[in-house]
């Protein structure tokens, strides 16, 4: 028998230089470092007006707004005078129309109409003078005029009656008899000559025909101002 022969395969081993592996490893390391740097970066943003605490500053509280309103509102004053002194005060404004309202905190119709006096002052305060005279004092010995001062001033302040206000120190019945008035409410309107142009009262009014500022006084006053 002949000798059997087997094919011999030659396996070529390719050797990569050591420096190749070093460069490959370095490349991978650099790639990982760059990727980590990119992922870890923070995008800068423009400075915010919001404080560092992250909370938005709160606006003024209702109490602060009310305090500011009171601080800026015109002061309301109340002087105690008799009737003649009140008329002398009216005379100081000769040359202007003067509206003098006689009222009381015990007179419901008076207090209902009073805000219209304030409104008249706001609308035409540069052309006329508004005044009020309280008739709260009833002549009771144990309750002198000063007793009513706080109550009257409180009402005037709530109404923002920033004009001349008088608390009459003559008892109401004596005053009404003197000026021939049955009862309040009553409003005197003085012309630019200082004389009474008209007095509004309900002495002879029929039921349901009581005078009002809107219906009677305002049109009359505006007529005088237009002259």
Q: SSE layout and pairings?
A:
Elements: H1 18-40, H2 62-72, E1 79-81, H3 83-91, E2 97-103, H4 108-124, E3 128-134, H5 149-158, E4 164-168, H6 172-178, E5 186-190, E6 196-201, H7 213-226
Parallel strand pairs: 1-4, 2-3, 3-4
Antiparallel strand pairs: 2-5, 5-6
Features:
6-stranded mixed beta sheet; 7 helices; 40% helix; alpha/beta; single chain; 227 residues; globular; Glutaredoxin
How do you describe this structure in short?
The protein has 227 residues and is of the alpha/beta class.
DSSP strand (E) fraction?
5-15%
Mean pLDDT over all positions: 81
- Residue stretches low in confidence (pLDDT < 50, at least 5 long) are 1-24, 41-48
Distance between the termini: 156 Å
CATH class of the domain at 76-226: Alpha Beta
Neighbour order of strands in the largest sheet: 1-4-3-2-5-6
CATH second-level architecture of the domain at 76-226: 3-Layer(aba) Sandwich
The sequence of SSEs as H and E is HHEHEHEHEHEEH
Find the CATH superfamily of the domain at 76-226: Glutaredoxin
Give the helix/strand class: alpha/beta
- Number of beta-strand segments: 6
Describe this structure in words.
It is globular and about 50 Å long. It has a domain at 76-226: Glutaredoxin (3-Layer(aba) Sandwich). It has helices at residues 18-40, 62-72, 83-91, 108-124, 149-158, 172-178, 213-226; strands spanning 79-81, 97-103, 128-134, 164-168, 186-190, 196-201. With 227 residues, the protein is α/β, with parallel strands linked by helices.
């Amino acid at each position: 028998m002949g000798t059997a022969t087997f094919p011999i395969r030659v396996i070529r081993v390719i050797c990569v230089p050591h420096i190749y592996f070093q460069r490959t490893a370095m490349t991978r390391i650099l790639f990982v470092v760059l990727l980590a740097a990119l992922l870890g970066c923070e995008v800068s943003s423009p400075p915010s007006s919001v404080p560092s605490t992250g909370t938005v500053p709160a606006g003024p509280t209702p109490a602060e707004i009310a305090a500011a309103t009171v601080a800026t509102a015109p002061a309301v004053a109340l002087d105690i005078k008799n009737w003649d002194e009140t008329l002398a005060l009216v005379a100081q404004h000769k040359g202007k129309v003067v509206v003098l309202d006689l009222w009381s905190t015990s007179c419901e119709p008076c207090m209902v109409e009073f805000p219209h006096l304030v409104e008249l002052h706001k609308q035409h305060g540069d052309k006329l003078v508004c005044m009020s005279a309280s008739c709260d004092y009833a002549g009771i010995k144990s309750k002198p005029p000063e007793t009513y001062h706080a109550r009257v001033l409180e009402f005037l302040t709530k109404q923002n009656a920033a004009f001349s206000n008088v608390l009459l120190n003559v008892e109401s019945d004596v005053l009404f008899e003197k000026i021939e008035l049955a009862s309040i409410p009553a409003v005197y309107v003085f012309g630019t000559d200082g004389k009474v142009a008209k007095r509004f009262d309900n002495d002879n009014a029929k039921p349901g025909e009581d005078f009002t500022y809107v219906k009677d006084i305002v049109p009359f006053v505006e007529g005088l101002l237009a002259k």
